[in-house]
Specification:
The complex is a heterodimer of chains A (368) and B (514). Chain A has 368 residues and is mainly alpha-helical. Chain A contains 17 helices and no strands. In chain A, helix 2 packs across helix 17. Chain A is globular. The relative contact order of chain A is 0.21. Chain B has 2 domains: 235 residues, P-loop containing nucleotide triphosphate hydrolases (Rossmann fold, 3-Layer(aba) Sandwich), CATH 3.40.50; 255 residues, P-loop containing nucleotide triphosphate hydrolases (Rossmann fold, 3-Layer(aba) Sandwich). Chain B has a 6-stranded mixed sheet with strand order 6-9-10-3-11-12, sandwiched between helices. Chain B has a 6-stranded mixed sheet with strand order 18-21-22-15-23-24, with helices on both faces. Chain B has a 4-stranded antiparallel sheet with strand order 2-1-4-5, with helices on one face. Classes of the chains: A mainly alpha (368), B alpha/beta (514). The structure holds adenosine-5'-triphosphate (ATP) and magnesium ion. The site of magnesium ion (MG) has 6 residues of chain B, from helix 1.
Chain lengths: 368, 514
Amino acid sequence: MKDRKALAENQMFVAILASVASIAIGLIFGSILLLILNPSKAGLGISAILTTGFSSLDQFGKVLYQSAPLMLCGLSVGFAFKTGMFNIGATGQYTIGAFCALVGAIAFQLPWWMCLLLSFVGGAVWGVFPGLFKALFNVNEVITSIMFNWIGMYLVNLLLANMPIMLASAWGASNSDRTANLAQANPGAMIPKGGLDRLFGDSSWINISVFIAIIVAVICWFILEKTTFGYELKACGYNKDSARYAGINANRNIISSMIIAGALSGLGGGLYYLAGTIQYVLEKKTLAMGFNGIPVALLANSNPIGTIFSSLFISYIQVGGSAMQPNFSSESTDIIIAVIIYLAAFALLIRGFITKLLKGGQKEEVKE
Amino acid sequence: MKVAEDYVIEMLHITKEFPGIKANDDITLQLKRGEIHALLGENGAGKSTLMSVLFGLYQADQGIIKKDGKEVKIKDPNDANRLGIGMVHQHFKLVECFTVLDNIILGVEDTKHGFLQKEAASKKVMQLSEKYGLKVEPDSFVSDISVGMQQRVEILKMLYRDNEILIFDEPTAVLTPQEITELMEIMRGFKKEGKSILFITHKLSEIMAVADRCSVLRKGKYMGTVNIADTTREELSRMMVGREVEFDIKKKSQEVGDVILSVKDMVVASKAHNNNAVKGVSFEVHAGEIVCIAGIEGNGQTELVQGITGLEPLKSGSIELCGKDITNASIRERSKAGMSHIPEDRHKHGLVLDYTLEQNLVLQRYWEPRFQNHGVIKSMEVRNYAEMLIEKYDVRSGQGPVTTARSMSGGNQQKAIIAREIDKDPQLLVAVQPTRGLDVGAIEYIHSQLIAERDKGRAVLLISLELDEVRSLSDRILVIYEGEIVGDFDSVAMEELGLYMAGAKRKDKKEAAS
Ligand SMILES: Nc1ncnc2c1ncn2[C@@H]1O[C@H](COP(=O)(O)OP(=O)(O)OP(=O)(O)O)[C@@H](O)[C@H]1O
Ligand SMILES: [Mg+2]
């Protein structure tokens, strides 16, 4: 009894347990869905989701590669959340970041690190608008962010359509619905593999992006936990009135946190498209990557270090999902992945439940 | 012949532990039917915790609760409600964006085909309100009504649920003296009807006035129960603190120094109405004096302080601090210029409740070179500083510097704020109701600290609704009425002060602004 109570009071333990439990629940629901959709192939589907990521070094490389942009989008959402802002605009910032990186790479033939820098700046610029509107006119950031998601996507499509040099057709390919393949357009803009490809059995996916993302996560953690800047940001997020009373300029913090959040998403876009394995396709829907930053952040309870793990998990599930393709339609795999991811994001709910269980049916009522 | 006592509620050998602290340690409390039973104890003694156990917010680790002699299990507030137990919390728990009526019926609303049926509820509320003299405006939003009315809403909530056992957790801490008198009357009315009341307060005079018996807690332990008729204030405070408490304050007279704060023709807009809340107020506070603003709540004190501290802009007029114009200075600039502020609302302004105690203790100073280096917080320095303040001001909590502020007892939250603001070593200390919710021992200490500041040659501007506090601490009293200063006294008789506060008398303005 005593031990259980001590455990219940260990915040870290409860948080991790809650995340693991919600992942399990998500997986169970996903399996039930598979059974309903295609009973005969359900077993195959489940094993695809659960094992593909580890099935080969190539697939594992893909898990790592995809986790980098997810991690950054998760960091972006989590960082803004700590300041009390809901950054649903990660996808727009991500798109702009990707665009800036690609323009640097193809149109200006810049090296990879300069392109990454461009994506960082591009995302920051896109993040500043919701921040400004919120700080100056008290317009809800959710509304502005959603508007800027669409504006960002169509703006990028418009610009790309009018920049023939950016498109694959200008570099010896036949299709003009996507950007050029970096291997042909500017191999120097591809993120270095740092010898990892040899380690990962010549996986075409792997590069150093996941390490860049992890370093960024650690920096975010440091900023939030160890600096006066982070102290101010969190104070604003927890209680705007007392932050003001303490002489903290709330508006400046709202804007800075949105700039940083935007920059993080933008960098995510850069990391994803500068790998060279994927080309940006002109489409009429916003990219899912930015939105997936939301469950990544929720699952990690907005903690930057937790984000490293939650993004790896979600990336793993996604890689598994794409391996289900022949047996299940792409729509149903999307649904299943979504169910798993979003149930996994119930971590917070489950957290209260676990504390209650551990304390032996006791109410977790925080006093005010 | 000995008759068994008629207890409605018995809490027997209750023990409740929180991380790092035994908030309740084998406490026994017996409530007789139809009595007003006071619960007394220092800040952090475990009063709110014990009441929360009775109300089902916490489960006791050990001990049992009996209702009418039968053991009951109270797992949550709904259970408590079924047993007729209601509670008014130390910090109210109303939904700000709901109307008064919605708040009262929340959780027990009548529905028909899934739709709310409010007419009957509204009628019942109005009847109760009339019967007990609890004036409320059912259609106002909670965010717009005064603290006093919020409390009446909380009381109506209990009555609406036909509760027979009423718990009041420090109901008078936020009330004006007049409202306190009214509340005592209301409590006597409840008693006459046979309701049983548990009443927490730090004010001994209130206990002496309404309570039948009083149980005393000290550091989580039960110290005993006494009949009020057979006891005195002194004995109660000795039981509670374990030593004699000085009720009289000793203050040596001293010459005042230079002008520290100078306010000229200050006008501040009101948020509640179109009129100005502060209408052209001018006054000065000198080094080495405690100037007190006395007045009935809602006469512009709040806005006056917000204007001086920079929380609200002035409409016109000017403020100087130590000879420097700070009329348009930011809050941070004022703080740097030597202003400290103990705010009226400790949860809204004074604390970041989700921050730890140590983080809260540097809330006004984290940016100083002492606590940061190139923007990186020096955690060791913060920890040492927090430990020093906790020790010096006797801030009690479960886990010391790393306790979350939210889990601390109300009085200890207040002590943390006072420690932070006084230790900043300000030129001017603006203190609004600084001793609200503190136990008598802590009040004694804080008063001595305020006087020490004055003796050091600092200026103190005190806003208080407690006339006793006003009289014993202040060197000068300014009376505020409807946003204007209507009197300026070095010393004054209580009755006269009352007349000025009620607006029945006023000194000529020029004379007053001397
Ligand atoms: N939810 C909680 N989590 C952790 N510690 C708590 C919690 N609630 C209370 N405590 C601790 O238990 C002790 C008793 O607190 P309680 O609120 O009962 O005091 P109190 O007698 O009501 O004091 P006050 O007069 O200041 O209101 C305090 O030290 C407090 O820090
Ligand atoms: Mg209390």
